Amino acid sequence: MLHEVAASDIDITHIVTPIRKLLRRVRFFDGEVEGIDLERKKVSVSHGIEHHHHELEYDHLVLALGSVTNFFNLPGLAERALTMKSLGDAIQLRNLLIERLEAGDFECALGSRDELLTFVVAGGGFAGVETGAAMNDFLREAAEFYPHLSEEQIRVILVHPGEVILPELGPKLGAYAQKKLAERKVEIRPNTRVTGISDRGVALDDGTTIPTQTLVWTAGISPNPLLATLACQKERGRVKVDANLEVPEWPGVWALGDCAAITDPRTGAAYPPTAQHALREGKVVAENILAAVAGKQKKPFVFTTLGQLAAIGRRTGVANILGRNFSGFVAWWLWRSIYLVKLPGFERKLRVMLDWTLDLLFSKDLVQFMTLRAPAVSHEEAEKPEAAVGAREQTSPAAVPSR
Ligand SMILES: Cc1cc2nc3c(=O)[nH]c(=O)nc-3n(C[C@H](O)[C@H](O)[C@H](O)COP(=O)(O)OP(=O)(O)OC[C@H]3O[C@@H](n4cnc5c(N)ncnc54)[C@H](O)[C@@H]3O)c2cc1C
């Protein structure tokens, strides 16, 4: 749902559930794992403002560190590209879209308007397509509030290395999504890769450069780098586990989700790194830890992918559910219904449902969320007679201004 946050369809915090509300009977430690000692069964973690250290002992350890964005060392990407992996990324993207519109609207932007209003998304998988489609809808709808801008000036370009976008859904649905996005003026560059970003713009492997300063990178993930420090078998950087999701070399150590290489015993192929699988793997790991503690039989992880869905903007979607293809409004409706059901807790479901209902009635929200301190003056400056009145008006030291 990150693209919905980026495109202002739902409120920033409505898709996340506070972990303390979720895990009521769990001892929770909010920290960063810095090292794992499998021999001594200890995990070193840091937390707090000054990042002080603790060592946590374990009997059983579950590795669920997920994945990280990989920029493949392409020039400029680590410094300039936006990513789409966390709520923070979605908020940053929304802020940046508004910032670009604000900058582009002013007369002084005449020379750089094209550059400001061109947006490149790299990667035609689920994250790239959903993000690109949502950005396109948001920007075109928002443009009407900017007197010097028109919809025609906005360019959203999706760069994809394959022939057809959304390869996971097959060529038919991919071609449908491509056609719908093109109808809404998203420019799709198939068989093309981004090779870097600089002051001149986004460079492509066909030798062209798109003049823009906005690149959203969704074209590469890698397993969490912490896994490389572990002395166990890996497959493309992910921890290899047995059928019960236990690390064979280290009994009592388990791995799941994006950081685990899990083989489907029926096909011999690896399970895909999706939330759909990670959630079910979590349940099997929990049951197997209980079984290990009680000396009972562990059970293997076997799961058939139920389906995959993508929202492609303007109440349109594409989906493959239990082998059946859906497209258009029905797929979009299925997308929203299924993701609503998946949200943990009634409160979040209700909040998102209300957001979606209000979204039908009102135009998109153009609020920029900025975590800046309100301006302040020093004590000496405040004492000057001419500054006294202005200084007293600044009452809140850590306000969160928005516009
Ligand atoms: C934009 C986007 C859209 C997606 N859409 C879908 C979708 O529609 N359907 C679907 O099934 N899947 C989707 N996925 C994939 C899905 O999000 C992942 O497969 C799933 O989240 C994997 O779960 P996980 O628990 O393995 O990892 P994560 O959910 O990534 O969780 C890993 C956690 O570990 C934490 N962590 C990392 N390093 C440390 C450390 N050193 N110390 C402490 N904590 C650490 C991270 O902060 C994070 O909270 C999407 C992914 C993205 C990026």
Structural class: alpha/beta
Report the β-strand fraction as a percent range: 15-25%
Cα distance spanning the termini: 23 Å
Cα-atom radius of gyration: 24 Å
* Model regions low in confidence, pLDDT < 50 over at least 5 residues: 391-403
Main sheet: strand order: 6-13-7-8-9
Mean pLDDT: 91
Taking the sheet with the most strands, its summary is: 5 strands, parallel
Bound heterogens, unique? flavin-adenine dinucleotide
Count of individual beta strands = 21
Label the overall shape.
Answer: globular
Question: Into which percent range does the helicity of residues fall?
Answer: 25-40%
In DSSP terms (H or I, runs of 4 or more residues), the helix count works out at 12
Keyword list:
disordered C terminus, 5-stranded parallel beta sheet, binds flavin-adenine dinucleotide, 12 helices
